[in-house]
Specification:
- The complex is a heterodimer of chains A (314) and B (224).
- Chain A is an alpha+beta fold and 314 residues long.
- Chain A is built from 4 helices and 21 strands.
- In chain A, the strands form 4 sheets. Chain A has a 7-stranded antiparallel beta sheet, with no helix packed on it. A 7-stranded mixed barrel of chain A has the order 13-20-17-18-15-14-21.
- Chain A is elongated, with a radius of gyration of 20 Å.
- In chain B, the strands form 3 sheets. In chain B, strands 5-13-6-7-10-9-12 form a 7-stranded mixed beta sheet. A 4-stranded antiparallel beta sheet of chain B has the order 1-2-4-3, with helices on one face. A two-stranded antiparallel ribbon of chain B has the order 8-11.
- Classes of the chains: A alpha+beta (314), B alpha+beta (224).
- At the A-B interface, strand 16, strand 19, strand 20 and helix 4 of A face strand 3 and strand 4 of B.
Chain lengths: 314, 224
């Protein structure tokens, strides 16, 4: 029986284990999953001296309140998150992108994300969690992954099977940048939409709806008119695809998306903007900006270099 | 054969095999899918075959559109390639406890319950693809007189095991999920089992399926 563990005092509203995700399974209907904001996931692991592909706790909006029991261990939170750490006699306001040492009886209270959606809690060690297809990522819709594929719940105990011996405290000055323009590449059904519809797509502002989750982001705004057919023969999807169903409101596929869909695809979000897209909370305004494939590839390369630089400086 | 290859975003290839839905085009898609899957090209992280398209997604950190396109264009897909398909018999119970949309189907198709079941059961189906939700098979083709549209308002919860129809296809809900297909019955079989990591899907693209009717008693005792 492990002597190092977490107890969930309050689970928060959408708290799951996530890692790098699982691939090679679209053809049987299992999406990629994994941490929604990959860059913040990687940084959280680096801050506590973990392997970069270790499991972390992902939360959305309101986070968990947890109590730790066991030997000293490091923890770090990334994203734009308001939290506190309660020690025996004191409670300190936590800062993102810094690691803290916690010990037996300490509590981490993640109050909420600030004008963003996802945050990450990494602990310097290894959670004792089940892997399915080489990933512990929880897909609550298909009940796949660790914790029987379900969100973390109140009263639950989570064991750690290993604690890192490297307990160096780390810090980085990373600041999450916000963008209003999401760059997109023309979709395979772009010509299904009227000239007016295409113009609306690139020129008007859309609002992120409350009906957004790990599967998809629904947008509200001016309707995009379809002049060919509001259905296509069902075919594969990838994350970032923007489908427009008959009601004219775009839906962006996110990491837990259904693998097959039958609505026309007006565009696909460029990989470079995915991490920032998923952080747009309900009510945020989005504008789409067209870019071509080769620019999208170059921008992603630069983004990836920037990520590697950030990580190497921690 | 692939008619056209384009990009779906910056991290996937969109291979278009045509617009029709038929076994012959779909078999081509499945052949490509199986060949590419076997060869394990570095950087390709997912393949999604559907009726007449194959989407190949890749890790943009490892490869790019040009490389993957070039690879797919030059791949040797042998026509004789055995797609290694199985023939399966799926038990289905069409008792009124399960056949939630039989009345709706009777009205739309203008056929009696008996006739609908007779048409549905005496037929061999071809699995075109699996997905949307994990393991869900898309089976075709229903006869012309058996084709109905989706429900106008989809159900929030379709029970696990539901066997349902829409247009020229039948499917099976592998777990409880929202859905708008016309429910005809329920199978006690686990069509998707996530504990079997090497083979979670009972039915795979290219397989042939027949439905065999069972009684409510047989259904209840099926897993004992």
């Amino acid at each position: 029986m492990s002597s190092n563990y977490l107890e969930i005092i309050r689970p928060g509203i959408n708290t799951t284990f996530q890692d790098k995700g699982r691939d090679h399974l679209y053809h049987i209907g299992i999406p990629f999953s994994g941490a929604m904001d990959n860059r913040n996931y990687l940084i959280s692991n680096k801050l506590v001296n973990n392997n970069l592909d270790s499991a972390v706790i992902e939360f959305a909006y309101q986070g968990p309140h947890i109590k730790y029991s066991g030997e000293k261990i490091n923890c770090a939170i990334t994203g734009d998150v308001i939290f506190s750490i309660k020690k025996k006699d004191t409670e300190i306001e936590g800062k993102c992108y810094e690691s803290y040492q916690i010990e037996n009886g300490d509590e981490i209270n993640i109050i909420s994300t600030n004008k963003s959606v996802y945050g990450y809690l990494a602990l310097g060690g290894e959670f004792d969690v089940k892997f399915q297809w080489y990933s512990c990522s929880i897909n609550t819709k298909a009940n796949i992954g660790s914790n029987d594929g379900k969100k973390l719940d109140v009263g639950q105990r989570i064991n750690l099977k290993k604690i890192n011996s490297n307990k160096d405290i780390k810090k980085t000055n990373y600041i999450n940048t916000k963008i209003e323009n999401i760059r997109v590449i023309k979709g395979t059904n772009f010509d299904y939409f009227s000239e007016e519809g295409k113009k609306i797509f690139y020129e008007k502002e859309f609002t992120v709806s409350k009906l957004s989750d790990r599967m998809g982001m629904r947008l509200e705004g001016p309707k995009i008119d379809n002049i060919v057919n509001t259905n296509i023969k069902s075919e594969g999807l990838i994350k970032g695809v923007i489908q427009v169903p008959a009601d004219g409101n775009p839906i962006i596929m996110l990491s837990d998306h259904g693998t097959i869909g039958g609505y026309p695809k007006i565009g696909v979000v460029a990989s470079v903007d995915y991490d920032r897209l998923v952080q747009m909370s309900p009510g945020s305004k989005i504008k789409f900006k067209e870019i071509n494939l080769s620019d999208a590839e170059t921008l992603f390369k630069l983004y990836e270099m920037e990520t590697q630089n950030l990580l190497s400086q921690i | 054969m692939i008619k056209n290859i384009s990009n779906l975003g910056d991290a996937a290839l969109y291979c278009d095999f045509g617009n029709e839905v038929n076994k012959s085009i779909n078999s081509q898609v499945i052949k490509y899918f199986k060949t590419i899957k076997e060869k394990n090209f570095e950087g390709i992280n997912n393949l999604t075959p559907s009726y007449n398209k194959l989407i190949i997604s890749y890790d943009l950190k490892k490869t790019n559109f040009k490389e993957v396109k070039n690879y797919v264009e030059n791949i040797n897909v042998q026509d004789s390639k055995d797609i290694n398909s199985k023939k399966l018999e799926i038990p289905v119970c069409c008792h009124e406890n399960f056949s939630m949309d039989i009345k709706r189907l009777e009205e739309i198709l203008k056929l009696s319950r008996e006739k609908i079941l007779e048409n549905f059961l005496n037929k061999e189906y071809f699995c075109y693809m699996t997905g949307f939700i994990a393991g869900m098979p898309f089976l075709g083709d229903l006869d012309e007189n058996m084709r109905a549209q989706r429900l106008e308002t989809p159900r929030v919860k379709v029970p696990k095991g539901s066997v349902a129809l829409t247009e020229q296809f039948a499917n099976i809900y592998t777990f409880e999920s929202p859905g708008g297909w016309n429910i005809l019955g329920n199978t006690p079989l686990d069509v998707f089992d996530s504990s079997k990591e090497d083979k979670p899907n009972l039915i795979n693209p290219g397989d042939t399926v027949v439905f065999k009717e069972i009684t409510l008693d047989q259904y209840k005792n099926y897993n004992e």
